[in-house]
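Changelog-adjacent note: as of this version, every example in the card shows the full chain rather than a window. The one below runs 386 residues end to end.
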Amino acid sequence: MYDFDEIVPRDGTCSIKFGDLKKINPNASEDAIPMWIADMDFRCAPEILTALHQRVNAGIFGYSSADGRYYDALGKWYSTRYGIEIKREDVVITNGVVSAINHLVKILTKEGDGIIIMTPSYGPFDRAAKGAEGRVPLYNRMIYRDGCFEIDWDDLEEKAKMPSSTLLILCNPHNPTGRVWSRQELERMRRICADNGVRIISDEIHSDITRTGIDVVSMLDVASDDPSVTVCTAPSKTFNMAGNGMSNIIVRDPEIRDQLRRACSASLSPLSLAATTAAYDSGAAWVDEMRAYLDGNFEYLRSFLGREFPEACYKIPGATYLAWVDMRSLGLDDSGLEDTLAAAGVLIEAGGSFVDNAEGFVRINIACPRSVLAEACERIKKAFKG
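Full-length structure tokens:
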């Protein structure tokens, strides 16, 4: 029904991903394929585009706020996809998950507090901790075993017991590894944190993008009405609307919720509101077809690596559209990996972009038409095999 093979021109769209590629890596070829930043190359669902056109045709773009239609659409999405009831009063709408986490870190912690981050990690978590004056990031280094990253439970418990530890920033599912945490793992995390007075921020921005047949368990479900758990969600990854600037932060602690609302109080973009309402209300079929298409892309990459680079360790992730590949066997450091691939015409992010515990790995965004992925694979082959 939807065409994910279409190559959508990005010239003149002010795209960060497709902008001045030499600024991303000076070694980049002129025709480099950008597979670094996490947005897709797929055209947005036509249901979203129709809603945007209708809103534009209204001709006025004044101060706007979410109405009942928006909360009904959000509620329907979480009820249908996750079996979770979203209470309208718990939702704080912000202009992005990263900005919300920056605010929450300052609200939930004080100078001298320790903030636990599982590494490798999405970089903005680390920057949120370091950007809040006097806070200290504590790296819970995950254990790499048989091609999969697992939680070091002893270390997590040790760090949670530190008197200064007050917050865990969780990525559920995990970025960059694509791990989908089981209910048992999430319950164990929550128990460790609860026993030691550590709050949890669960970033669930990738939760809708799983492989077919795999479901994400939300901390909203695991933690029920626990006020010490805050969950961050957004349509940005799910519907390829990263520039939409609208996210939903579920905060069950009334005092924290009020503080976050004051920190983020602003009128909403009327276009973002229209797009997000349409996405949650009418975008399910597009998402399911997109997930199936990504399944094919991941399988294509698995087959290519198994054939051409059997020494590289790669497993198809349970979630996200980001391949996390162990390239340590090539003997190059992170800069060497990035520069070699950039010169061959593929822009990726190596382990150094992911805080800690990731040297020699690369993250590749495969949310693109399969013809583009196929060309990128040929370039990767040429880069290392000539």
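Structural remarks: The first strand starts at residue 33 and ends at 34.
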